[in-house]
Amino acid sequence: MIDVLVLDVNETLTDMEPLRDGFEEVGLPRHGLDVWFAEILRDGFALTAVGEYVAFRDLAAGLLEERLVAAGIEPSDEKVTTVLSGFTRLPLHADVEPGLRRIHEAGIRIVTLTNGAAAMSENVFRNGGILPLLEHRLDVSVPRRWKPHPDAYRHAAEVCGVPVERMALAAVHPWDIDGAHRAGLQTAYVDRRRTPYPRTFSAPEILVPDFVELAEILQENAK
């Protein structure tokens, strides 16, 4: 039983594949998206581990410029904007809207919590039809700690006014599931890629392939 469902954003709700078009437009290989995004998370985690905070966009821009230089391409603000602006136009995965609508109808409050900027996804959520379902759209700029640091999840609990144990995080990233579990939240792993869950991380209470099935479980538990 939970009062609030906390949602990760990038990859969990959004399909990031269209960002490959931006990579191609500035002259970078489409497959470079995967390493670049992993590098952003790596550096965000590393800075958090030593008590520092840098915004997602600043890390993303700097690492993108490095990739351009390594590819023999002159970096520019225009090229960086071409790629980063793609985050504001991403589509939602097909199961997100129907799943979240059913969860909302079950009386469960829904918030998002991202390592990126909350404002970056507003049009994405509006276009995808889920903006009215979200009570809060949160990011890590206030606690100044990237997920999976416990302060990020505690910030969400403080904003919502509920104990962490009455919240659950839904995400596609095992590191996010593990961080939320250690902070005291319940967890739901959305296994879109049907990949084995890493044994080194805390196991989720719920494992589902998509948000429609998660809605079925939460609706049943809410009865």
From TrEMBL:
Gene3D superfamilies: HAD superfamily/HAD-like, Putative phosphatase, domain 2
E.C. no: 3.8.1.2
Membrane-crossing residue ranges in chain numbering: none
GO molecular function: (S)-2-haloacid dehalogenase activity
Coiled coil: none
Keywords: Hydrolase
Keyword NAD: no
Entry similarity comment: Belongs to the HAD-like hydrolase superfamily. S-2-haloalkanoic acid dehalogenase family.
Protein name: 2-haloacid dehalogenase
Organism listed in the record: Kribbella shirazensis
